[in-house]
Task: inverse folding
C-alpha cells in the first residue's frame, strides 16, 4: 500500500510525484515515442496531470498548430501509453489519454501538459491463499449516509477520549466489509474471498443510491490472485457537494428495523443481481447514474431524463417478463378476426396494411401497459403512472413558456414524486423490502413500508 503520507496528499489534492523517467508511446511498430522526465500533480479541480519535459522523441508527426494525438482514440494502434518511475523507485502506468503537439514539438527539449484520468501500479504480493484472499480498499470524499453499527473511541495526544458511531461492518458469506466515516472522507475496505471488481461496483452503487451522492474514489487498492493494483483517480471536486434524492431510510423506528439489516440486505441483493443477471444490474445502475446527473441541472432536463429512464427500466427489465406472462389467447383470436375483416373491406393495399399494423400493435406491451400490470400486482400506484404520463408527454412535446418561480417549485415537487416510481422499479428489481421515504406533490416526506412483489421470476 502507498505510504500514508502519499495517500493523505492524494486526499487533500497536494500530491507531487517527481518522475525521473517518463515514457509516452504508441504500441504500433512505427508509433510515437517520447522520453524524458516530469512531475505528477493534482490541479485545483481534482484532475491528475503530468508536467512532462521531453528530451528525446521518435516518430512525432509535424504540426504547425496545436494538433491532438491520437486522432482516433478508438483505434488501438493510435492509443497512447504512459510509463513513469518516481524518485523512490515506484513505477506507474496510464493509457487512453491525449497529447497536443505543435511546431515547437520538434525542438527538444519540449514541454507538455498531459491530462490523465488515472495512474496505476501493479506488483506481485505474497498471500497465504491467493485463491481465497482478496482485498479491496478505497477512499472517497463525497457524502456518505450508511447506518453505523460500531462505536469507536479516539484518544487525543493530550489524553482526552471521545467516542463516535462512525463505522459500519457488514459480514458477508466468506468476507467482511468495513466502512469508516471520517470528518472529510470515508474509508471502505473488504477482506476475504470475493471478486474485487464486482464488489467495487456494487459498493459504489449501494453507497451512492443510499446517500443520494455519486462516490468518486480517488485512491483504490485491489489484491486479486496474488497481484496488487493501486490506482489514483482524477475526480471532480465540485461534485463532492452535489446530491440528488434517495428513498433509503438510514434510521427507522421500531424493533423490526433496529439493527438496519434491511438496509445492508440491499447490498447483498445488488451482488446477487450482478452475479445472476448482470444486464438487469447494468440497466438500473446506468439509469440511476443518468438521473443523478440530471438532478444537478434544470427542471426540464430532470423531467426528460427521469421520464425516459423509467421507460428504459420498463423496456430493459419488466416488459420482456410481462410479455411472456401476458400471453392472452383471447386477444390473439380477436386480433386475427379483426385482421380478417379488414382484408374483406374495399381498401387500397396501403390502407389495409396500415390498419392491420395498428391492430397488431394491440398486443404489444407498452410502457403504459406495463405500469398498469405493475399496478395490478401492487408494485406501483395509479398516481405513479398518472404523474409519469404527464411528465413524459410534457418532455416529448415541449412548448415555449415563461419562467415562473412558483411553477418551477411545483415542477420540482412533481419530479420528486415521479422519482418515487423510479425508485420503486429499482428496489423491486433488487428484491428489497423495508421502509423507504416517499414524496407526493404538495406533501412532506413520509415513510412507506415497501413489500417486495416477485414480478420477474
Result:
Amino acid at each position: 500500500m502507498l505510504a500514508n503520507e502519499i495517500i493523505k496528499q492524494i486526499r487533500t489534492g497536494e500530491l507531487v510525484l517527481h518522475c525521473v523517467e517518463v515514457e509516452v508511446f504508441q504500441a504500433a511498430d512505427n508509433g510515437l515515442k517520447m522520453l524524458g522526465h516530469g512531475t505528477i500533480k493534482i490541479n485545483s479541480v481534482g484532475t491528475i496531470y503530468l508536467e512532462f519535459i521531453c528530451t528525446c522523441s521518435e516518430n512525432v508527426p509535424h504540426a504547425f498548430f496545436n494538433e491532438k494525438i491520437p486522432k482516433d482514440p478508438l483505434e488501438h494502434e493510435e492509443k497512447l501509453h504512459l510509463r513513469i518511475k518516481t524518485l523512490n523507485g515506484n513505477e506507474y502506468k496510464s493509457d487512453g489519454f491525449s497529447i497536443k503537439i505543435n511546431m515547437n514539438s520538434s525542438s527538444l527539449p519540449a514541454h507538455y501538459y498531459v491530462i490523465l484520468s488515472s495512474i496505476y501500479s501493479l506488483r506481485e504480493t505474497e498471500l497465504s491463499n491467493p485463491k481465497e484472499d482478496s482485498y479491496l480498499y478505497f477512499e472517497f470524499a463525497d457524502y456518505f449516509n450508511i447506518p453505523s453499527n460500531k462505536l469507536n473511541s479516539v484518544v487525543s495526544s493530550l489524553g482526552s477520549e471521545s467516542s463516535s458511531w462512525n463505522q459500519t461492518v457488514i459480514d458477508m458469506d466468506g468476507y467482511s466489509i468495513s466502512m469508516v466515516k471520517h470528518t472529510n472522507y470515508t474509508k471502505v475496505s473488504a477482506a476475504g474471498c470475493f471478486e474485487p471488481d464486482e464488489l467495487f461496483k456494487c459498493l459504489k452503487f449501494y453507497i451512492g443510491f443510499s446517500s443520494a451522492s455519486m462516490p468518486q474514489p480517488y485512491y483504490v487498492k485491489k489484491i486479486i490472485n496474488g497481484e496488487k493494483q493501486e490506482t489514483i483517480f482524477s475526480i471532480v471536486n465540485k461534485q463532492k457537494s452535489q446530491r440528488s434524492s434517495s428513498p433509503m431510510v438510514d434510521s427507522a423506528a421500531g424493533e423490526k428495523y433496529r439493527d438496519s439489516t434491511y438496509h445492508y440486505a440491499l447490498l447483498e441483493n445488488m451482488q446477487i443481481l450482478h452475479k445472476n443477471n448482470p444486464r438487469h444490474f447494468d440497466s438500473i445502475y446506468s439509469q440511476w447514474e443518468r438521473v443523478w446527473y440530471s438532478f444537478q441541472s434544470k427542471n426540464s432536463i430532470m423531467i426528460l431524463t427521469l421520464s425516459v429512464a423509467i421507460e428504459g427500466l420498463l423496456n430493459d427489465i419488466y416488459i420482456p417478463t410481462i410479455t411472456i406472462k401476458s400471453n392472452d389467447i383471447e386477444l390473439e383470436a380477436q386480433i386475427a378476426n379483426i385482421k380478417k375483416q379488414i382484408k374483406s373491406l374495399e381498401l387500397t393495399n396501403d390502407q389495409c396494411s396500415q390498419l392491420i399494423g395498428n391492430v397488431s400493435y394491440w398486443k404489444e406491451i407498452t410502457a403504459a401497459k406495463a405500469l398498469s400490470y405493475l399496478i395490478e400486482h401492487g408494485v406501483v400506484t395509479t398516481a405513479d403512472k398518472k404523474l409519469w404520463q404527464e411528465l413524459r408527454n410534457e418532455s416529448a412535446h415541449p412548448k415555449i413558456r415563461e419562467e415562473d418561480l412558483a411553477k418551477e417549485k411545483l415542477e420540482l415537487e412533481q419530479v420528486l414524486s415521479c422519482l418515487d416510481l423510479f425508485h420503486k422499479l429499482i428496489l423491486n428489481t433488487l428484491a428489497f423490502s423495508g421502509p423507504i421515504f416517499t414524496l407526493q406533490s404538495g406533501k412532506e416526506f413520509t415513510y412507506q413500508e415497501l413489500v417486495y412483489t416477485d414480478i420477474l421470476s
About this structure: The CA atoms of residues 112 and 214 lie 32 Å apart. The chain has a mean pLDDT of 87.
